[in-house]
Amino acid sequence: MDLRERVVRAVKAGRSKSETARLFEVSLATVKRYVVRDEQGELAARTSPGRPRSIPVESQSDLESQVDASPDATLEEHCASWQESHRTKVSIATMHRSIERAKYTLKTKR
């Protein structure tokens, strides 16, 4: 954030954008983008949107209840149960990540 503010201040102080780019060792496009973002009042970095989670944060409590109800179920069984209760098909990897986020561990039976 400090670099962004210094770049914008330099341009506002009268330096050219190309001179500012050389001074701060950033590209000219970066300087232009910072100036536009400052004019919009949004100089801070944006987060990368990415893809929405298949099991949203709001449904995490539902997942925890499901795992508590059947702690011995396999990931495949949890996926099937989730699809039945929420009408959303999720992969085994998605289920695994969501259960890990909830701080649960699944152990296999011998």
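(the above was protein one; protein two follows)
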Amino acid sequence: MTKRDFYEILGVKRDSSEDEIKKAYRKLAMQYHPDRNPGDHTAEERFKEAAEAYEVLRDREKRERYDRYGHQGLRGGYGSGPAARDFEMDLAEALRTFMSEGIFGEFFGQAAGGGRTRDMKQRGNDLQIPLKLTLEEVAASVNKKIKLHRYVKCDSCAGSGSARGSQETICPTCRGTGEVRQVSRSFFGQFINVSACHQCRGEGRIIKNPCPDCRGEGRLEGDKTIAVDIPAGVAMGNYLTVRGEGNVGPRGGPAGDLLVVIEEKEHEFFERHGDDILYDLPLAIPQAVLGDVVEVPTLNGKAKLDITPGTQSGKILRMRGKGIPHLNGYGSGDQLVRIVVWVPSKLSLKEKELFLQLAETEGVKPPKSERGFFSKIKEALF
């Protein structure tokens, strides 16, 4: 059975943040929880499916492997140990994942083993930049230098947001948890509403003496140049995820990711079709009639190509392995050479006389069909 895409299951984009993925999972887990859907096998499968997707996407290493190789990356071919197994959750595993996120207590109105744990440091935003490549670069594994303008850690306060010599204090409202809980009781039982603390904005700490350089943000705008390895065979619209090279989060928060989106520059000679490339080769009439050995450009220099006598305009010749390498695979596409017989638009008197003499011979006239085209169609139908 073909597995659905994990991002599709959770209803999130591929560049979604960890918080967005967690929020989407919680919503689905609450909707399809077995206790809310007793006896509903479809809901149970949806619950397990959501837990399986979340188990992979919440883990940076597993997510990176999944982004590169898909479901195949979670099998033994791309790693070893528990992270490389083919995930197939049963209901017990899905319930454990659900409970480990601390939503058990929110769902049933009671604590589950000491309450929630949460990362109170806000993650920085992801960055997305386009990277234009020539077909020659696409055909080869290249290393590209990319200049980024982004939020970087403030050196003055080492990213803490506090001025030198001062320290942050625990938020008195949430007592450092970053969240406040409101408990209400009704005939149906106890309900707990959990929200981010308004005083510390969910961070659990308060900066009393902000850093004068970053004004308490713990980060500043800055430039950085990084090197990115581009594998051979990428195509327009493909993207590479560079973990931790996005914006730094405020006040010591982890950095987001950098998404490098591939774009292709228009080539002077070649037209790309998947991993094949197409080249139009103009031939003079004598070359097409008599045959020739010609030199054609390729992505790796020039190569010789045999033109057999009597080659017709529009014929496509194939040069094996001269195209784009297959991404994450073996071998390459082909270079397709389309013959275009060039017909001169202006002739000298001598050239015109030669063509007139040639036109009188039977060998240069196209063959006559014994039956017309429509006669053949009529015969095939009736």
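Reviewer note on protein two: DSSP finds ten helices and 15 strands in the chain.
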